[in-house]
Amino acid sequence: MNRACSIVASGIALWLAVAASVCAGECAPSVRDGWVRMPPARMPMMAGFGRIQNDCPVPATIIGASSPAFRSVELHETRTVDGVSRMRAVPKLRLAQDTAAVFKPGGMHLMLMQPRAPLKAGSKVAIEFALSDGRKVLGEFEVRKSGDP
Q1: Burial, 126: exposed, middle or buried (Cβ in 10 Å; 0-12, 13-18, 19+)?
Q2: What is the pTM assigned to this prediction?
Q3: Please, are residues 76 and 110 in contact by the beta-carbon 8 Å criterion?
Q4: Where are the alpha helices (DSSP H) in the chain?
Q5: Where residue 45 sits, what CATH number does that domain have?
Q6: Which CA distances in Å does 39 have to 65, 108, 147?
């Protein structure tokens, strides 16, 4: 009897995993309120902010980002440790179901390195986020002057 229950439980677990996978394929996180802070002078790095919302019934994991406008895009986080502000790369960003990751100055942000061409305030930049399941999520980020909200 125990073996039969184990087989049934395994079958149910497998069915739930397949159902979650199918549901995840239909639903993807979305990028909202994306913006890039234009530096006061021409610099090889810029920062990107916004929100990545996961309204899906299953978690999603961001494992990287890229943009045709920059040679490199990385997820970073700024933390104060022992009174010193330190920045570190975030190799994976897990988004639980029905949650959001907020990218803001002084916290989590995108490091946008080596722009391929000069950017102007008001222009739009496409940034693509790679998910651990192989899917991509595209976001549009508006370039803003340093003092703009």
Answers
A1: middle
A2: 0.78
A3: yes
A4: 2-26
A5: 2.60.40.1890
A6: 21, 18, 10
> If we measure between CA atoms, which residue out of 66, 85, 68 comes closest to residue 77?
85
Contact 89, 73 (CB under 8 A): no
The closest of 91, 112, 97 to 49, measured between CA atoms, is 112
Give the pLDDT confidence of 91-133 residue by residue, as tens digits: 999 999 999 999 999 999 999 999 999 999 999 999 999 999 9
Structural domain includes residue 91: yes
| Residues β-bridged to residue 47 | 37, 111
Q: Is residue 85 part of a domain?
A: yes
Question: Which among 37, 43, 48 has a CA at the least distance from the CA of 111?
Answer: 48
pLDDT digits (tens, 9 = 90+) for 48-93: 999 999 999 999 999 999 999 999 999 999 888 888 888 899 999 9
Show the tokens assigned to 55.
Answer: 């309204």
**Full residue range of the structural domain in which residue 136 is found:** 28-144
